[in-house]
Every structure is written in structure tokens, then in C-alpha cells.
Design a protein that fits this description.
The chain has 134 residues and is mainly α. The protein has five helices and no strands. The protein has a single domain, classed as Substrate Binding Domain Of Dnak, Chain:A, Domain 2. It is 76% helix and 0% strand.
Length: 134
């Protein structure tokens, strides 16, 4: 059992009927994606052609911020607001799709962009799956 799953299991209140497996998968995918995007942005900054990676860096950082925020929002259930959760998930899903699209443009030249794009696609899918259960 992962720490995310274990923490949700210990929650004393009902999680509002949210699919717990989809919730755990989404939180974990968001945290993984935030790390991958942060690392990819940093790796882009170390490239000789950094000026050509400006959009990728910006997209990475925006996606990392939204993924971290989404993981945090999904980890809180006291006073749960389904509308806010849906909007947050949709923003994260879109940020991941946009970031994956951008990283895929550079993936043939930069392995870190390929790894990041894959993490973004996993998170995009996890957000979409959780949205379907809400």
C-alpha cells in the first residue's frame, strides 16, 4: 500500500463517494508529473540551446505548479467542494496535455523531454479517469 493510499484509508470521514482507487492513482500521477516537469525544466536550462526551449521550460513549470496544486486539493476532503475539484482536475488535465505536446516536440533530441511527456500523459489520463467518477 502506498503512502497516499494509506493516508486516505486512515481518514475518519467518508471521502464523499469518490472512487478511492482512481483518487489514489490521480494524486500519485500528479505528484510524479510535478517532479518530472520540474526536473525537465531544470534539464532544459542546462542545454546549450536553452533559448529554443523557453516555451518548453515555461510549460513545464506551469504544469508542475498545477499538478502539485491538484495533488494538494485532492488530498483534502474536509469541506469537499465537487465543483472546485472538477475545475482543478480539468485545469491539470489540460496543463498535462499541453506540456506533453510541447515536450514531444523536443523528445527526439532531449531524453528528459521524452520522460516528462510520458509522465504528463499518465497524469492527463489519471485526471480524466477521476473526472469520469465525479
Amino acid at each position: 500500500m502506498t503512502v497516499v493510499a494509506e493516508m486516505l484509508r486512515t481518514y475518519s470521514k467518508d471521502l464523499g463517494g469518490v472512487d478511492q482507487d482512481a483518487l489514489v492513482a490521480c494524486i500519485e500521477a500528479c505528484m510524479e508529473c510535478a517532479q518530472a516537469c520540474t526536473a525537465c525544466a531544470d534539464a532544459c536550462l542546462s542545454e546549450d540551446m536553452v533559448a529554443e526551449l523557453t516555451k518548453c521550460i515555461r510549460t513545464n513549470l506551469d504544469c508542475a505548479d498545477l499538478c502539485a496544486t491538484t495533488a494538494n486539493v485532492l488530498s483534502r476532503h474536509t469541506g469537499y467542494d465537487a465543483n472546485l475539484t472538477r475545475a482543478t482536475l480539468e485545469a491539470c488535465r489540460q496543463a498535462c496535455a499541453t506540456c506533453a505536446d510541447e515536450c514531444e516536440k523536443h523528445a527526439s533530441m532531449h531524453e528528459h523531454c521524452q520522460v516528462c511527456a510520458e509522465a504528463c500523459r499518465r497524469c492527463e489520463q489519471a485526471c480524466a479517469q477521476l473526472l469520469q467518477t465525479l
